Amino acid sequence: MKNRRSPVSSETSSLHGQQLQGCHDCCTVQPAINVRCSFCQRKLHARKRYSLQHSWVFLVTALIFYVPANMLPIMTTNQIGKETISTIAGGVVLLWDQGSYLIALIILVASLVVPIAKFIALITLYLSKQLGIYRDPQNKIIIYRAIEFVGRWSMVDVFVVAFLASLIQLGNLMSVYPGPAALAFAGMVFFSMLAANSIDPKLFWDDDE
Amino acid sequence: MNDQLSDIRVICHECDLLVCIGQLPDGHKASCPRCGCVLSRSVSNSLDRMLIFAVTALICLLFSNLFAYVNLLVQGQEREISLLETVQVLFELKEWALSGFMLVIIIGLPAFFTTLISWLAIAIKLQRVSPRTISMMRLIGYLRFWNMAEIFFLGILISMVKVASLAHIEVGLSFWAYALFNVFFIATLLHYDKLRLALAIRQVVNEKQAIARVV
């Protein structure tokens, strides 16, 4: 893999011939040879170490979690003795049939469209970096920011299930129980957030020079 | 914060470009000229505002735990739950992981986060900071990444619309307190400017060191 711990790019962060790096915590500008920040003593890294490797690992873990999240039931509804088990996709279809189009659309986007788009976008970012095929950093940074922003919102489905399960506990009349897919889905969101967070956007600019 | 950003050199944390920020009038923001990421926003009294918003958010969060959250009415049966009871019910259903997750996300993390921010702002105001205060900012940065309170709120709104077709539903006082908490919490986050806070800490520390040298 190409992502060794690269030296600070010479063009961008140098002043009077001295190479520089920034401290992430106290925002001071430090000479590139410093191992620790001269102000807050934090260890300095010009780039996140093994950023793409870590990100790949988290992404694959998220993908593994995504399988049971879609296969297993996310919610079991018990209404007057009648038990309905629904998966994520089944829930969307059910809501659509009931006429709650807006909610169906929100759940569809948050739990199916966004995760898949995120997986594709992350893989595109990794491959473009590792194979060096697509080098426009401006577009990549837009994709990166979109992934960072949108990641947490997928969690909304888990919150809906958890809240419904705690609210609707009326014995035989109507009860809702969370299914195993809720946890798997939460794990998927968790690991895909970590995957997005492990990417170092500075890498995109490194091959631009 | 009264300190003006004048000729501050920073390295953009997204693209590593060395940027020199000049005088920033209030209401303006400094963006990286290459990648466009926002480096700092200039807001008058941003430290005071952040402190006020954080404390108000904390108070709202406290109130949202005291009263009924949502009232459910189905065929004469009534059910009323509070915010903490949502966690408790999941715990009783033996959904340990889910209930722990909910406890951390909806109450634990927001409470800890707003407390930390208020503490940081007070420490800077009282000039009781040292280079180690920076590690508190690092912790705030980590926690900020995992904050999902507003997503939980959206989840509640969706579930209420879902239930509305099956049962009569009423929101309690705590619901409004939690809504207000979200507003103030987001306001706090918008006023949290890492660069300005770090500069304020550095300024105080440098002044202290200068005094120590004279003495």
Instruction: Tell me the fraction of residues in β-strands of chain B, as a range.
Output: 5-15%
Q: How are helices and strands ordered from N to C of chain A?
A: EEEHEEHHHHEHH
CATH architecture of the largest domain in chain A: Up-down Bundle
Q: Give me the number of helical elements of chain A.
A: 7
Shape of chain B: elongated
**What is the CATH fold-level name of the largest domain in chain A?**
Butyryl-CoA Dehydrogenase, subunit A, domain 3
Radius of gyration of chain B, whole Å: 22 Å
Poorly predicted runs of chain A are 1-11
Descriptive overview:
The complex is a heterodimer of chains A (209) and B (215). Chain A is elongated, with a radius of gyration of 22 Å. Helix content of chain A is 54%, strand content 12%. Chain A is mainly alpha-helical and 209 residues long. In chain A, the strands form 2 sheets. A 3-stranded antiparallel β-sheet of chain A has the order 1-2-3, with no helix packed on it. In chain A, helix 3 (101-131) packs parallel to helix 6. Chain A folds into 2 domains: 10-46, no CATH class; 49-206, Butyryl-CoA Dehydrogenase, subunit A, domain 3, CATH 1.20.140. Chain B is α+β, with helices and mostly antiparallel strands and 215 residues long. Chain B has 2 domains: 1-43, no CATH class; 45-214, no CATH class. Chain B has helices at 46-64, 83-92, 96-125, 133-146, 149-164, 173-191, 194-214; strands spanning 8-11, 18-21, 29-31, 38-41, 70-74, 77-81, 168-171. In chain B, the strands form 3 sheets. A 3-stranded antiparallel β-sheet of chain B has the order 6-5-7. A two-stranded antiparallel ribbon of chain B has the order 1-2. Chain B has a two-stranded antiparallel sheet with strand order 3-4. Chain B starts with 7 loop residues before the first strand and ends with a helix. The model of chain B has no long low-confidence stretch (mean pLDDT 89). At the A-B interface, strand 1, strand 2, helix 3, helix 4 and helix 5 of A face strand 1, strand 5, strand 6, helix 2 and helix 3 of B.
